[in-house]
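Below is how a single chain appears once it has passed through the pipeline. First comes the sequence as given, then the structure the pipeline wrote out for it. We keep one example in the README because the format questions we get most often are answered faster by looking than by reading.
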Amino acid sequence: MFKIRLILDWTLYRLALLLAAPLIPLRLLWRGRRERGYWRHWAERLALGPAPVTGALWIHAVSVGEMRAAQPLIAALRTAHPDSPVLLTCMTPTGRATAESLYGGFAHIVYLPYDYAWLVRRFLRRLKPRVGILMETELWPNLIRAAARAGVPLVLANARLSERSARGYARLPALTRASLQRIDSIAAQTEADAARLLKLGAASVHVTGNLKFDIAPPTDQLERGAAWKAAWGARPVLLAASTREGEELPLLRAFSDAAPVDVLLVLVPRHPQRFDAVAALVESTGLPYQRRSVAEGTALNPGTRVLLGDSLGELFAYYAACDAAFVGGSLQPLGGQNLIEAASVGRPVLVGPYTYNFEEATQRAIDAGAALRVNDAADLLENALKLLGDGPMRARMGEAGLAFAARHRGAATRVAELVSALV
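Resulting structure:
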């Protein structure tokens, strides 16, 4: 029965890929209208062009969050295997830009080809990696199958699987089971993630913790944030970090209605292609604002109510410059974003009701007294203003955040040991 279901699942998956094939170049062209990086390096997406390296430790991180989460693991692997080259693959221009800024001095960086059997076979044949590390939950059936046939061991690192994602994978149960069982080792973030992966058919699952706890705030960014805060004066600063579409306008309206004029809102959209659109939203509210890219090196206007963070790679600096931080993707049903970075800088954190992609870390932060959950934009502003006016409470939450972040470190060493056992 399993074999029949597997044949059916493979047929459905391959049919979906076949139907999607004509749309891929159209999608790249369309997305390139707003983010020009999609118009470059097309040959890599087809596994063409010269092979940058062979025999590398290969890490695949689809975009920005996964690429940043890989930092402590990559550092641990370079220490354990100093003579091995490092190959990084991604799927988005922002992920590539993040890889180049963090690892460009030593790593080879290319796009991973789409999950067509002949493309991933060619990718593996040309680059011959020693081991493949797939960050978080990147289950590409053709890639996983091709790696198994080519003798490339695979590790699923920092694996997380929400209930919603598990239900999605369960729609093709036999294909998901076969793919998971071809992965040599799975390093799950939490017991709940491990249980969901085992239920879907995974064979070798270890609970190693969340790599994001091991990311140390860079000293240069902490210093930059402190310099910004000093330049902004004694104004209370509320940071809205990694906001997503549908969150900014309600937040801006609530801020306009409720916030005293001396409070500064620093608004940092998660996706850079939305910077201009968010600027237009701020203008529509009539709130005086400046853009970080324009304000660089100049004093902030005392009348500025909103500072638009339209720069990449400075999130730790923004956390260091604020008094309280809202972590976005959580006011709309988008699953939330990582709050660990804010906690590791010692800032009190606010999150919305939708945090299912980071549920365990979020709940642990709330239980530790490092974070507060709010219901909507108005509730966010009410609680944020209370925090901004209560220094002792901010200090308690900040200290709780530092302790919370320190308590859960160590995942990088554990995952690196799993990888090294396969190399």
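Residues 13 and 126 are 25 Å apart (CA to CA).

See the next section for the split statistics.
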